[in-house]
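pasting for the record
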Amino acid sequence: MRRRPWTLTLAAAAVTAALAAPPASAASPATPSPPPPPSAAVAERSAGFDPLLPSSRPVELREAHRPLSVTYTYEGRTHTLDDYLLRTGTQGFVVLDGHDIVFERYVAAGRDSLFQSWSMAKSFTSAAVGIALGEGFIDSIDDPVTKYIPELKGSGYDGVSLRDLLRMSSGIAWEETVDVPPVHVAASLGYPLTEMARQRKRGWEPGTRFEYTSMNTFVLGWVVARTTGVPYHAYVQRKIWEPAGMASKALLGNDSNGNSMAYCCYYATDRDFARFGLLYLNGGRANGRQVVPASWVTESTRPSAPFNQGYGFQWWLGADGAFSANGLGGQHIWVSPRHGVVIVKSTLATVAGGNETDAAFEAVAAEVARTRAARLTSAN
């Protein structure tokens, strides 16, 4: 999988960004303290989180654990899966072989723990955009964002296409490690993200380079809400969480002004994160229906621009067709169509692993495929 340049650099912002602590998460003595409560006026509007309710038809994940002998070589040294999970502070780890859970492990957590997605949320927002496009609420991703959000006229987003938001090429002046922590903390304390989006300035020509920018994803979530006529979280509930068969209640962060963050802050179980990966592994289908348009699944998980072959529409791209949703501190939903495998990894925060994660996950997927084939052979 290609290098994710923001993953390690964002670690420097983790302490500041972690002020927005989850209301429920993996139990750990290292969990950071929540921020001070917002003002009474803000608290009356919202508690800062919106619920996503379990689906009426949860997608079944069968427990079918089997031994996986995983070793891999990274930078000239041989490692094991156990070694990798320990060194990266992994609290939740789920491996799917199709609908079968073949490996699952938790440390200071459990299968009902709600883990913070961080930027894995961006891939959920991409799915919501694709669904809204398929339903005709959005005419074209080549439309300027101001067609749908006229409040952004005169800002750095004026005239920027939805395509350039999706592929992180908006042209606004932004440095993720510097700009996202104060924006995130301000939103967590009740300052409107819409106002912060309107304050952004143009820094370079849109569509000419890649610049990872969380504010782009918030604006995409704003477009989803505006075009569909329902709040972002409500659209996700109706069009993703329910039909994709998520089995547990989750929480989605907002700015206490009616705006879902969209760029982060899904608090969900690892099994439900795995169900989202399975949805994409299956071409956008779940429970016998098309949830995300198949064409969108294909388009969003292939290179989105000549200047970045490692990024689609809010998905990171890897070797052999693999793609992943990635979050600050080591959160991953990793999908391998080649091997038919989904891997979810959650942790409070770690800077360990880095590009080693690619080697570890590819080795896990290959071992799952090998053991699958061996079982089929022995059954025959």
